[in-house]
Amino acid sequence: MNILSEKLREVFxxxxxxxxxxILLKFTLIPLxxxxxxxxxxxxxxxxxxxxLFLTGVDLGITPLGEHLGPxxxxxxxxxxxxFAGFVLGFFISFAEPGLLILSSQIDTITxxxxxxxxILVVVSLGIAVxxxxxxxxxxxNLPLYIIxxxxxxxxxxxxxxxxxEFLGIAFDASGSTTGVLAVPFILALSLGITxxxxxxxSSEKDSFGLVSIVSVGAVMSVMLINVFGSNHNFTGELxxxxxxxxxxxxxxxxxxxxxxxxxxVAFFPLVVIFIVMNVFAFSLxxxxxxxxxFGFIYGFIGLFLFFIGVNAxxxxxxxxxxxxxxxxxxxxxxxxxxxxLGVVTILAEPAVHVLTHQIETVTAGYVRKKSVLxxxxxxxxxxxxxxxxxxxxPQIQLWHYLLPGYALALALTFIxxxxxxGIAFDAGGVATGPITATFIxxxxxxxxxxxxxxxxxxxxxxMIAMVALMPIITLxxxxxxxxxxxxxxxxxxxxx
Length: 497
Hints:
Elements: H1 2-28, H2 34-74, H3 79-95, H4 98-110, H5 117-141, H6 145-162, H7 165-178, H8 183-195, H9 201-207, H10 211-228, H11 249-281, H12 287-327, H13 333-349, H14 351-363, H15 370-393, H16 399-413, H17 419-432, H18 435-451, H19 457-461, H20 464-496
């Protein structure tokens, strides 16, 4: 029960700032009606308890599965097993990611089925699967992460030239959504499981980071490829009012239950199959460990079911309404300022961010303080959301105007920043794009892009998650550069003394 209460506290404080902002907006800027607020608060309760159970399930069942799979994949020293396992695990862990399930559903709805949810899920998962194999091979053969990332992003640059503006934002948002609350812990556990078998401890520490950054590239490439070589051209986007928007509260939540149950089954069934098969053929777990992991999967399934109900029944609707109203105001400052505040409080309240900041402080022996990392991350993510709002207000600004110089800077830094920080920084994008970003802020952005005269829902409504994922890459590498300079400075002082 301790882990449940701990997760409940973490999730409550991560959702609380957004709830407070919505209440504040109701009494200051946005005339939200009583039914909308009741649905939002009820949806928030579902989201809090759903995420609590889901994250508990991740800790008890899914993360240990990754920890056991890593050594099991590599212990026989057969390359074909590594390739096959990497592909299968990459595909199914992406397919089960809640953030990607929500994004793909939004894409399906906005494009009126022209780009189906299933198509996005399958294509992105295939891209993740291929890059998971590459990530495994990098760890086994000690291939330099920064070289792989530079090559991959050069390929993305070439594909981006031919990618339509509508698909550019979707491609990068798919990448950020894939590395969420399920995929990141699982992938990191896999990394640690594989690198723990290395004899070189320094190499093991360095290579344990970076797998998330490599697999996320696969999502971008795969979506770009279906646009460049597929038939998805010349379609429009429309954000329709939800079918349940005018229903009574109880009926609204009941209506969402069947789809939420189906999506949860689709997400968890492959992982349960992998767990059962590996239990029979590869793992030597005690009955206590098996029971604990089984309860983890049950918690995770129930939690995901409740989370989907809460998100779709009321939580995201208020985000859409809020973004729509602020975008129609004459003064665009309120939209940009609200976006900035949402970005800042979301990242400050994200539990995984505090784990990351503590990890960086430990790795750098205290030279890079937790407070400085939090300040860099929160201000960076706040700026990312604010810049996305500015893009909606000024449609002449395109997404690539942000991403091209941003990734150019991020990749240039990989050559001069300590290599440990390169992996941490690129992995941090998954930490920043948490459940609140993939739900409330995504809906807020779509609402603003749909309501603003002159903005395009497909072109300007997507890309926010991409910006949120980019900023930590830059800010944490800059902190790595500061750490490098401080280390050199202290070394010189010691030499002089």
